[in-house]
Write a structure and sequence with these properties.
The complex is a heterodimer of chains A (358) and B (369). Chain A has 358 residues and is an alpha/beta fold. Chain A has helices spanning 4-7, 20-31, 48-60, 104-117, 142-154, 173-176, 189-202, 209-219, 223-236, 250-264, 268-283, 288-302, 305-324, 328-347, 353-357, and strands at residues 38-41, 68-75, 81-88, 92-95, 130-134, 159-165, 180-183. In chain B, α15 packs antiparallel against α16 (352-368). Classes of the chains: A alpha/beta (358), B alpha/beta (369). Chain B: Belongs to the activator 1 small subunits family.
């Protein structure tokens, strides 16, 4: 018994629900024989991975669905051992190099060389090349990206690379110029409701339009989230009528509570309280980027109009600082204190424009 | 042992028998240095070295897709011919391990070998085959400072029998002592005319019907990067040929492949920020325009949901603002400051949604002031 998200995930290009034009494009590419390197990008839950899987199936046939999971050990130049999980079939291999942090270059080099130097042995295979799928390509380090560059050209004859990323901003230009960029936009409301209804039909229940509407609003273009919410709601109340309460994840409510705390009181004592809560969030592995975004989103809903721009400005400022630095909590705290002081000054009517400009 | 990477190459090449399936970037890589588009100055100098068969250490630098790697490969091929290419040229790039150990070991070993006697080439042509080897260090800007330092002495000691060619994007990342040992060549972004002629040559070779207008769009979308425009051309032709019935390539296809945000989307976004659409684009509905915080946030959210990349939005917004006919210079300057900061943030791993929103708010503020 698997989750609906997995159970009803489209397996072939024909069964994809939306972006018909993109599907036609992918089919054309898969059938033309000279398949390029590709870079899929788009917001999460838009269906990037699903499309990659469907394209692979179109390329190689049902054989790609026979996958095995390997754990491989890599050795860094400084003799440190790295464990990496690798998903592979006879035709493709899937890696998430960013799992190993700053050592991702070693993994990329080893795996790509290995794949590139072995020929396809299966004579019945539809394609001569193998495909390497690299997920979370936007968190690859500069070194790892540089390692990809010439390899992508040199070993083109027996390997293709498919990169999956949320944004292309952190990818270096030489990589982008070697790939065919494929944008996967989030589905719009009609498309989402069509998907939800289809799942409902297959599970043999009726989905009231009002419930569908509410789920779509909540998920903000993330189809995976929408389907998960649908399944949860169905568990809670089988007939899906009456007032629905879409449960927010714990960390989200926690973040909202934090935002309210910041606005209620601006004292050193409160800073300490906030600090323990932030630590708690971090200890539960909530990414600091998500924390700062969620809190700032909540904050701007509750502060006066002139302050909103400032809150966003400093959130953006400290978010980058956080990426550059190594200790996340410092920057989160600095931001919280900044917001508190802005808020307090605004109330006591002190002009802060000079602070904002520099 | 150090010849391993080289021996792999012809084997791999043997298996790629079908040239129709080759990427055009590889297929139309220049075979001789006379084929190099643009870069007249560099080519002129290199042609001289081909005649005199004397070569200084080289340092090629310039933006991606301007032909740096192609030039040195073509030059090496012309110097040695296919028979000697393998044992005379060592090509290392960032995908190879290039720490200080490799420099001391692999590079030094190769550098100090006396070049083998030139074998007669099979294709009957006469190659100059000068008595030195070439080591190509591709993407040299990703080498560590230490590794570069270790190269210094090697370059001088074995200069008689080995020449180095460093290829990089950013010359500032090459340490000064290395740079001063090389003659530097800057590769300019290609002029649109030479990109255009190369593209039309390829399209006629491949029998792809493509109008001049579409070619121009390709050139504009790739910004002087020839490799990128060839990749786009190939993808576009592939897509156009596979639809039933085959259709000619349109500019819209090209823009979609290049990931360019459509004009009407950008104009709508810009008008939310208070940049009045200029001239002929007055058909946008101005009545619903409001410019509060919430409307901007909503607009940004929609843009991000569509999956457009932050850098693309930024560069198009930048073009729109800077070229705008009615904004004052002061306003443009303020906006430029914002764009610069955001670009830096994107490079440092700034969150897309947060930073697009931040840019939008600050541009809005800069224009209102």
């Amino acid at each position: 018994m698997s989750l609906w998200v997995d159970k009803y995930r489209p397996r072939t290009l024909d069964s994809l629900h939306y972006h018909a034009e993109l599907t036609a494009r992918l089919r054309a590419l898969a059938s033309s024989g000279d398949f390029p390197h590709m870079l899929f990008f788009g917001p999460s839950g838009a269906g990037k991975k699903t499309r990659v899987a469907c394209t692979l199936r179109e390329l190689f046939g049902p054989g790609v669905e026979k996958i095995k999971i390997d754990q491989r050990v890599f050795m860094t130049p400084s003799k440190r051992k790295l464990d990496v999980n690798i998903v592979q079939s006879n035709f493709h291999i899937e890696i998430t190099p960013s799992d190993v942090g700053m050592y991702d270059r070693v993994v990329i080099q080893e795996i790509l060389k290995e794949i590139a130097q072995t020929q396809q042995v299966d004579l019945n295979a539809k394609q001569r090349f193998k495909v390497v799928v690299i997920s979370e390509a936007d968190s690859l380090s500069r070194d790892a990206q540089a390692a990809l560059r010439r390899t992508m050209e040199k070993y083109m004859s027996n390997m293709r690379i498919i990169l999956c990323a949320n944004s292309t901003s952190t990818l270096i230009a030489p990589i982008k110029s070697r790939c065919l960029l494929i944008r996967v936009a989030a589905p719009n409301e009609d498309e989402m409701s069509r998907c939800l209804n289809e799942v409902a039909k297959k599970e043999r229940f009726d989905l009231p339009p009002s419930a569908a509407q509410e789920i779509i609003q909540d998920s903000n273009g993330n189809l995976r989230k929408a389907l998960l919410v649908l399944e949860t709601l169905k568990m809670q109340s089988p007939d899906l009528t009456g007032p629905l309460t879409i449960a927010k994840p714990d960390w989200e409510t926690y973040c909202h509570k934090l935002a309210d705390m910041i606005l209620q009181e601006q004292t050193p004592q409160r800073v300490l309280d906030v600090r323990t809560k932030l630590y708690e969030l971090l200890a539960h592995c909530i990414p600091p980027d998500v924390i700062i975004k969620t809190i700032s989103n909540r904050l701007v809903d509750n502060v006066a109009e002139p302050l909103k721009a400032d809150v966003i400005h400093w959130a953006a400022f400290y978010q980058v600082r956080m990426r550059l630095g190594s200790k996340k909590i410092f920057h989160l705290e600095a931001w919280v204190i900044k917001v508190m002081s802005l808020y307090k000054h605004f109330f006591y009517d002190v002009d802060l424009t000079g602070d904002f400009e520099d | 042992m150090f010849l391993k990477p080289q021996t792999k190459k012809p084997e791999a090449a043997k298996h790629t028998v079908d040239p129709a399936l080759q990427p055009w970037v590889e297929k139309y890589r220049p075979k001789t240095i006379d084929d190099i588009s643009s870069q007249d100055h560099t080519v002129a100098v290199l042609r001289k070295t081909l005649q005199s068969t004397n070569l200084p250490h080289l340092l090629f630098y310039g933006p991606p897709g301007t032909g740096k790697t192609s030039t040195i490969l073509a030059l090496a091929r012309q110097l040695y011919g296919p028979a000697n290419f393998r044992n005379r040229v060592l090509e290392l790039n960032a995908s190879d391990e290039r720490g200080i150990a490799i420099v001391r070991d692999k590079i030094k070993n190769f550098a100090r070998q006396t070049p083998r006697a030139a074998t007669a080439s099979a294709d009957g042509q006469v190659y100059p085959c000068p008595p030195y080897k070439i080591i190509i260090l591709d993407e040299a800007d990703s080498m560590t400072q230490d590794a570069q330092g270790a190269l210094r002495r090697i370059m001088e000691t074995y200069a008689r029998i080995t020449r180095f060619c460093l290829v990089c994007n950013y010359v500032t990342r090459i340490i000064e002592p290395l740079a001063s040992r090389c003659s530097k060549f800057r590769f300019k972004p290609l002029e649109s005319t030479s990109t255009l002629s190369r593209l039309s040559y390829i399209s006629s070779e491949e029998h792809v019907g493509v109008s001049n207008e579409v070619l121009q769009t390709l050139v504009d979308a790739s910004g002087g990067d020839l490799r990128r425009s060839i990749t786009y051309l190939q993808s576009a032709s592939r897509l156009a040929a596979s639809t039933q019935p085959p259709t000619p390539i349109t500019s819209v296809d090209v823009l979609e492949i290049a990931g360019v945000v459509p004009d009407h989307v950008i104009l709508k976004f810009a008008s939310r920020l208070g940049i009045e659409p200029s001239g002929d684009t007055m058909d946008i509905d101005m009545s619903t325009q409001k410019t509060g915080f919430d409307s901007i946030r909503e607009e940004v959210r929609l843009l991000v949901r569509e999956g457009y990349s932050g850098t693309q939005i930024l560069s198009q917004l930048h073009d729109l603002t800077i070229m705008h006919p009615t904004l004052t210079s002061r306003q443009k300057a303020r906006c430029a400051l914002v764009f610069a900061e955001t670009d830096k943030a994107f490079c440092d791993g700034g969150d897309e949604e947060l930073w697009v929103l931040e840019t939008a708010l600050r541009v809005h503020k800069a224009l209102a002031a």
